């Protein structure tokens, strides 16, 4: 039996705009205004969506109460940092609650101390870091490169994120190898693809690309490369010579 009415609308589905994925309204930090479906900026947009204008926003800081156990974790972390003589506001740039997930944005010079506190404090006990991922926001001036760490507490069955940013001109972030040794290969991969230099890593080398490779392939300004292809007498240019939609 179909759950769709005669007019094509599913009566069980909430169609409010706030329930749609990716909707932040006017909240958050605007880092770019995209025009067209694919953001073409060096020619006409052939997608048919040339008139589409969309702001690209990062979620802004949340205000208390965060809800659920989020407040407990935030209180315990801030209290533990204060006990070490570190003002929480100097280490935690902002706390974000978005899509039911808790993320602490950490100043890079305090990353190792915050991570060790999250691991060792009995009330926190985030014993496992499942890796670090790189993100590149070319228009987020002064913090173009982001490293995102996913931490899991096996003791308390909780998951949080740490996020650290650095400028493209100074792509250095302290390594968490000394706190979470499993980050060894994850930091190598992030360095290989995004060019983030993890200071203190015991052997920061490329892991996928050749040692003499130029550039970092997963940055958004990296050329697509390729070779021209002949197809039935027509020449198809290499991807980096075609119209750009990025």
From TrEMBL:
Statement: the UniProt record of this protein carries the keyword Oxidoreductase: yes
Subcellular location: Cell membrane
Annotated NADH:ubiquinone oxidoreductase 30kDa subunit domain residues: 105-226
Alphabetized SUPFAM superfamilies for the sequence: Nqo5-like
Broad EC category: translocase
UniProt EC number: 7.1.1.-
Pfam families in UniProt: Complex1_30kDa
Signal peptide positions (record): none
Protein topology in the membrane: Peripheral membrane protein
Keywords per UniProt: Cell membrane, Membrane, NAD, Oxidoreductase, Quinone, Translocase, Transport
Reaction(s) the record says it catalyses: a quinone + NADH + 5 H(+)(in) = a quinol + NAD(+) + 4 H(+)(out)
Primary location: membrane
GO molecular function: NADH dehydrogenase (quinone) (non-electrogenic) activity
Assembly notes: NDH-1 is composed of 14 different subunits. Subunits NuoB, C, D, E, F, and G constitute the peripheral sector of the complex.
Role according to the record: NDH-1 shuttles electrons from NADH, via FMN and iron-sulfur (Fe-S) centers, to quinones in the respiratory chain. The immediate electron acceptor for the enzyme in this species is believed to be a menaquinone. Couples the redox reaction to proton translocation (for every two electrons transferred, four hydrogen ions are translocated across the cytoplasmic membrane), and thus conserves the redox energy in a proton gradient.
Family of this protein: Belongs to the complex I 30 kDa subunit family.
Name under which the protein is recorded: NADH-quinone oxidoreductase subunit C
Gene that encodes it: nuoC
């Amino acid at each position: 039996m179909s759950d769709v009415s005669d007019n094509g609308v599913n009566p069980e589905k909430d169609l409010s705009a706030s329930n749609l994925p990716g909707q932040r309204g006017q909240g958050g930090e605007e880092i770019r205004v995209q025009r067209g479906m694919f953001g073409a900026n060096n020619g006409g947009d052939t997608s048919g969506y040339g008139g589409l204008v969309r702001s690209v926003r990062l979620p802004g800081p949340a205000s208390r109460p965060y809800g659920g156990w989020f407040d407990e974790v935030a209180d315990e972390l801030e209290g533990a940092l204060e006990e070490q003589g570190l003002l929480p506001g100097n280490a935690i740039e902002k706390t974000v609650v978005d899509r039911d997930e808790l993320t602490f944005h950490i100043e890079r010079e305090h990353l190792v101390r915050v991570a060790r506190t999250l691991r060792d404090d009995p009330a926190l006990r985030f014993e496992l870091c499942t890796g670090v991922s790189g993100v590149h926001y070319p228009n987020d001036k002064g913090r173009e490169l982001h490293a995102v760490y996913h931490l899991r507490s096996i003791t308390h069955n909780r998951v949080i994120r740490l996020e650290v940013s650095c400028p493209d001109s100074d792509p250095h972030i302290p390594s968490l190898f000394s706190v979470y040794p499993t980050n060894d290969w994850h930091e190598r991969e992030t360095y290989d693809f995004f060019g983030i230099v993890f200071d203190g890593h015991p052997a920061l080398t490329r892991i996928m690309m050749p040692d003499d490779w130029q550039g970092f392939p997963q940055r958004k300004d990296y050329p697509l490369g390729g070779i021209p292809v002949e197809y039935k007498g027509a020449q198809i240019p290499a991807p980096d010579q075609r119209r750009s939609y990025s």
